[in-house]
């Protein structure tokens, strides 16, 4: 199989239908928040090395850990009808998957204040960037739209330490726009989520007098 084999160190639930996988860091893997990896696996197979490439399932996942050490984290939303995510969620740890990367030019280098805007699965990179900024003594704000939020423990922890965290319901576009209007000029803006969400975020920045072209936006499709 293509990619580098790595061990799944742990799998834990981080929200409704959402898990975080802690993966072994490959040699030479140097990633920062905002970047993503391509994960390859053959769900249901005990042998992830000598496989038919036609059986391999591939998905991109953005890092959700603020730094990379011996391990790094990705967050996986579980689609009950999906080919890969239910299998990943049921892993016990100790299994092997293959990764390629890191990829992506939307990065945070711990060099400025940040405003991280997240819709749905965008919370993974958003919380990682906010934590990295806070750890580096920079200002951080998080605006997170989801009716069933994930990583609430981490968000509440940084909120208790002074990070501005705002939860917005999915059917509240005006509340999202107001939150973005209030915070968009407080740091480098990052936005992560599906197309409709990031388009709404860009429009809100524009309506508030900001320049959406200055925002670092990752469209999940």
Automatic annotation (TrEMBL):
Source taxon at top rank: Archaea
SUPFAM superfamilies (UniProt xref): Ferredoxin reductase-like, C-terminal NADP-linked domain (SSF52343), Riboflavin synthase domain-like (SSF63380)
CDD domains in the record: FNR_like
Domain (FAD-binding FR-type) ranges: 1-109
Protein's name according to its UniProt entry: FAD-dependent oxidoreductase
Organism: Halosolutus amylolyticus
Organism lineage: Archaea, Methanobacteriati, Methanobacteriota, Stenosarchaea group, Halobacteria
């Amino acid at each position: 199989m293509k990619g580098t084999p790595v061990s799944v160190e742990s799998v834990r639930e981080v929200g409704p239908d959402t898990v975080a996988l802690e993966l072994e860091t490959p040699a030479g893997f140097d990633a920062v928040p905002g970047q993503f990896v391509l994960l390859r696996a053959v769900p249901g197979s005990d042998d992830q090395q000598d496989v038919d490439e036609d059986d391999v399932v591939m998905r991109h996942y953005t890092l959700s850990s603020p730094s990379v050490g011996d391990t790094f984290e990705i967050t996986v939303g579980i689609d009950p009808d999906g080919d890969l995510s239910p299998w990943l969620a049921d892993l016990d740890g100790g299994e092997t998957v293959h990764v390629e990367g890191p990829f992506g030019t939307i990065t945070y280098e711990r060099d400025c204040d940040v405003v991280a805007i997240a819709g749905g699965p965008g919370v993974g990179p958003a919380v990682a960037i906010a934590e990295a900024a806070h750890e580096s003594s920079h200002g951080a704000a998080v605006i997170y739209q989801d009716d069933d939020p994930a990583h609430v423990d981490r968000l509440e922890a940084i909120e208790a330490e002074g990070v501005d965290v705002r939860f917005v319901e999915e059917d509240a576009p005006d509340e999202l726009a107001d939150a973005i209007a209030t915070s968009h000029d407080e740091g480098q803006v990052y936005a992560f989520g599906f197309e409709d969400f990031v388009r709404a975020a860009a429009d809100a920045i524009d309506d508030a007098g900001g320049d959406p072209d200055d925002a670092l936006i990752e469209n999940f499709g």
